[in-house]
Amino acid sequence: MMNNKTVLVGEGKPVKGPDNHERFFSEGHRLFWSLQFSGWLGWLVLFALRDTYWNQPIERILMLVFDAGAGFLLTAILRYCYQQVWNRSISIRLVTILLGSLLAALIWQPIKNYSQIAYLSEYQSVYEFGISSYFAGVLGYSYFVILCWSGLYFGLKFYRLLVMQTQRSIRAESALIDAQLQMLRYQLNPHFLFNTLNAISTLIVVKDSQRADAMVHKLSEFLRYSLKEDPMGLNSLENELRATALYLDIEKVRFAERLQLVTEIEPDVMNAEVPSLIFQPLVENAVKYAVADREMGGRIVLTAGLEGNTLLLKVLDDGPGLSSALLAKLTLGEEFQVDSGLGLSNTRKRLYHLYGDAGQLEFSQADIGGLSVCIRLPFVAIPF
Question: Are 317 and 299 in contact (CB under 8 A)?
């Protein structure tokens, strides 16, 4: 006979559900029984040491084993009762705790009394304790111990659920971030792709096959690099500048002399470790607003250098720039999505995901008249 039961999930597909044996040895059950055993063992050791100190007979100490065993069994039964009302209202759970603990204490107290009475130094009879002593022991000690056990049980259970919910939330957020970043790998600016293909088509029509062939080659090389690089991966600044040059070479076919590029890269930072495709959204924005929308075109400046142990990457343009209000929004990290495939907000998220507060994205008015975007990263050199 099979131990596992089968349940139907989705479109009637049978899926094997966990049997009682698997549930019994689940993580939650293992944790409970470990704490249950160690807790009552600790109680036994504590009182055994007390009785040893007071030179009680060995039989008295052995009777503590029955006391601990009874407490172990009663609280295990209580746990089953608590599980039955776990999803009920707070008032029902509270009543169950108070009454369940009282009932367990009423049962546990006679067991403890027997061991105490049987080995008192005067060997008093059970009748000498009387009913008042019985209830005094219940309310003065047994009920208190069982209530403490119940409080610890619910406290640890709530804490464990809180930890599990936090972990699930973290995993869900991490999975969402990973999914978004994976999408970035395949997310290209549709306008860039459309305009590039349109430019290639125009070159073919005018029978400029040499330039068309060169443009196709550069486009395929750029796409290959974009799809190959991990959005959360790191690369050398030299490789990133090479990819940016491919992109701008493609755009130069469209804009010709209207697109002017200036690079100011310190030689010492060429082997710096930077996020892959980090320049791409910044350069796309510069092309769109400083070149494409202006009849006379524009100038884009790429700079890279060191400021102490911080790597500074800048993309500047001489376009119309942004208003003070929009610059303030960008500085505060508010969403400001432009028509680039990756977007400035995603760039900020990538930097924070990789570097925390050490990765900064700053915006200001450029000295040459347009927008200046500066990325600050910890400088890490990739060994040659």
Answer: yes
